[in-house]
């Protein structure tokens, strides 16, 4: 299939985070685009190959990874509402260098280079706006490395734990306050009864 080869941990991490939860995917209102940073069709030139033929492919940027599929994947994705876990290629973006380049026949080309792949990945968009949009998102997604993603997950978990603890403390305070109010109410009723009895 021509997949790029890189650290097994990267691939496992990417696959584990491709599709979100089963409940969300099965929801009729689920929007699959909320789980990815950018997607669309680009032209791709073969890596380390004599051919100069550009082929249209469907690309996805998700959680610090660039994935690509056959150009028919977009329609399949809209039906499934989840990403295919077997892309034709997948690249971790953390160590990538992305820049606009000039190539014969493709005025809106850009390159992606990484120590994780052999050679330079050449891509092209239909216009300068689309090219710049992809370059910008690829640059931003470099910050979402595997390590930082794991740290973010841990931070979210800690915040959730803190939120649960705070909610528990609030409930305990409310229960205590309610008990004190009821105790005061009972004491007031007893005082009023004693007062009426003493006046009889």
Summarize the SSE layout with pairings.
Layout: H1 8-16, H2 22-26, E1 38-45, E2 55-62, E3 65-70, H3 73-80, E4 89-92, E5 97-103, E6 106-113, E7 120-124, H4 128-141, H5 146-199
Antiparallel strand pairs: 1-2, 1-7, 2-3, 3-4, 5-6, 6-7
Structural class: alpha+beta
Rg from alpha-carbon coordinates: 29 Å
Q: Biggest sheet: strands, sense, closure?
A: 7 strands, antiparallel
Number of strands: 7
How many angstroms separate the termini? 98 Å
Structural summary, described in words:
- The model is unreliable at 1-11 and 19-25 (pLDDT under 50).
- This protein has five helices and seven strands; from the N terminus they run H-H-E-E-E-H-E-E-E-E-H-H.
- It has helices at residues 8-16, 22-26, 73-80, 128-141, 146-199, and strands at 38-45, 55-62, 65-70, 89-92, 97-103, 106-113, 120-124.
- The protein has a seven-stranded antiparallel β-sheet, with helices on both faces.
- By secondary structure, it is an alpha+beta fold.
- The chain is rod-shaped.
- The chain is 45% helix and 23% strand.
Task: Describe this protein with a few key phrases.
23% strand; rod-shaped; 200 residues; single chain; alpha+beta; 45% helix
């Amino acid at each position: 299939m021509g997949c790029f080869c890189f650290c097994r941990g990267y691939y496992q991490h990417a696959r584990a985070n491709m599709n979100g939860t089963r409940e969300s995917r099965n929801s009729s209102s689920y929007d699959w685009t909320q789980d990815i940073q950018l997607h669309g069709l680009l032209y791709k030139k073969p890596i380390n190959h004599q051919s100069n033929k550009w082929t249209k492919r469907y690309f996805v940027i998700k959680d610090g990874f660039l994935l690509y599929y056959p150009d028919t994947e977009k329609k399949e994705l809209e039906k499934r509402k989840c990403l295919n876990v077997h892309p034709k290629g997948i690249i971790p973006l953390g160590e990538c260098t992305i820049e606009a380049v000039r190539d014969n026949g493709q005025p809106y080309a850009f390159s992606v280079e990484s120590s994780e792949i052999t050679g330079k990945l050449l891509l092209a968009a239909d216009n300068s706006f689309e090219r710049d949009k992809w370059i910008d998102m690829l640059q931003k997604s470099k910050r979402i490395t595997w390590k930082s993603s794991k740290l973010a997950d841990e931070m979210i978990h800690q915040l959730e734990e803190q939120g649960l603890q705070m909610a528990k403390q609030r409930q305990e305070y409310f229960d205590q306050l309610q008990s004190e109010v009821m105790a005061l109410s009972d004491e007031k009723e007893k005082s009023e009864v004693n007062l009426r009895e003493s006046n009889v």
